[in-house]
Amino acid sequence: MTHLFPASVMRLPVRRSAVAGAVALALAAGWQLAPPVAAAPSDDLVRAPLAAPVGPPGFADVAERVTPAVVNVTVKQKPMQRMSMNGRSLPEGSPLQEFFEQFGMSPELPMPHARQGEGSGFIVDPEGYIVTNNHVIEGAEAIEVTLNDGTSLEARIIGRDPKTDLALVKVDVAEGLPYVELGNSAEARVGDWVLAVGNPFGLGGSVNAGIISARGRDIQSGPYDDYLQIDAPINRGNSGGPLFDARGRVIGVNTAIYSPSGGNIGIGFAIPAETAADIVADLRADGRVERGWLGVQIQPVTEQVAESLGLDQAEGVLVADVLDNGPAKGAGVRSGDVIVRAAGQPMKEYRDLTKLVAGIEAGTEIELKVIRDGKTLDIGVTIGRMPTDDVARVAPAAPEEDQARIGLFLAPLTPEVRAERGLDADAAGVLVAQVEAGSPAQQAGIRAGNLISMVGQQQVSTPDEVADAVREAAKQDRPSVLLRVEADGEQRFVAVPFA
């Protein structure tokens, strides 16, 4: 039940009996054709047992110690809804009804059986608390946990956190269960041995070895992506299982794989154990995770964005939009600001801000260091409690494009245009009436009907203001101009190169 990118699986049949038969036949044929000839032993052929094993170190001791704490998680999910119209039969005389009657079929199909999925988990407390992935138990009507000794127990959900894809479930037991503790992956290095233990394809109790291939991977699954990439073979059903280091410490939770075929190709991803430990502690205490909230929509500072704003380095976090009634709005943060430090920590990339703010308790005041119009400002802001939305909704990054003409045709936002386009009466900016084919604006993703509300870090409300701001950016010998574009209610900054 592992996340796949994209998802597709092909199971290979196990054909041990056929192979054994072929080997037996070959041995029989060989005996008939060439009976064995006795040969005297010689010093060249007889070897004494090796003093030490050849190859990489074995993991039998570690596997024997940790596998009792790893469990299989079987989930029964809600069945699909029956095919009918408004919960009843199809309307009298409808073409679909005639089709069903022609072939002697009922338009109301029988209710399918409940769907079933499988994943993995591991016990982190002898009282029966088990860590797994949120996507393993999502939508579950019943959860069954099978221990390493074959015992099956019903489990209940303690808490879930979709943003990190972690969940905590519990089974009730009379005696303490074998368990492992969540460790820390900070000391783990690229190239270190790791063991992935779990339930691939429902086989159960499988141990696979590999190495850490990379750290800090962002697979675009959520705002807090910070995965360990591993090449230990993991497949469907490994989701939620533990990742151990060579000493048997849990350093991650196996969560996703990248595979064009659905099977293992050596690219797997695990949530770092320290991230899981914080989430699990919150879920166990409160059944949910509370995060700090800043109330901004952000995007990375790319090379083009940095050049457009005259920044020396492509670092920091670009504020694409400031949400109404959010902490940042009240503190004076503006769209177009580049946050370079927060709470004294440097912001190298946008994920640094999401992780930092999420871990700060609501009501805590921090200081943001921002760059606005070439000046550095210090802004104090009190962190709020995150509502249902993300801490910082991540806007798509501006596309990287070659040098070309801009190619925009603009129109003012009159009351008539607002009414015609279905825009709010207070919608601000300039309407993109037409985009020249093949122009850099088109290549950057700007489309007719979009709104442009900022050029660089300046608000604009008329076509002339846009033109003046673009000309000013060109005079400063910048390779591109930064436009804030609104499409489908989402704000994002786009760097459009000059010709």
Number of strands: 28
Largest sheet, if any?
Answer: 7 strands, mixed
> DSSP strand (E) fraction?
25-35%
| CATH level 3 topology of the largest domain | Thrombin, subunit H
- Rg calculated over all Cα atoms: 30 Å
Number of domains: 3
**CATH architecture designation of the largest domain:** Beta Barrel
**Unreliable spans:** 4-35, 80-97, 105-112, 389-404
Helix content: 10-25%
Shape: elongated
| Intertermini distance | 50 Å
Number of helices: 11
Tell me the layout of helices and strands.
Elements: E1 3-5, H1 16-33, H2 60-66, E2 70-77, H3 95-102, E3 115-125, E4 129-132, H4 134-137, E5 140-146, E6 152-161, E7 166-171, E8 193-198, E9 206-217, E10 227-230, E11 242-245, E12 250-258, E13 268-272, H5 273-286, E14 292-293, E15 296-300, H6 303-309, E16 317-322, H7 327-331, E17 338-342, E18 345-346, H8 350-358, E19 365-372, E20 375-382, E21 384-385, E22 392-394, E23 408-412, H9 415-421, E24 430-435, H10 440-443, E25 451-455, E26 458-459, H11 463-475, E27 480-487, E28 490-497
Parallel strand pairs: 1-12, 15-22
Antiparallel strand pairs: 2-3, 2-5, 3-4, 4-7, 5-6, 6-7, 8-9, 8-11, 9-10, 10-13, 11-12, 12-13, 14-21, 15-16, 16-17, 17-18, 17-19, 19-20, 23-24, 24-25, 25-26, 25-27, 27-28
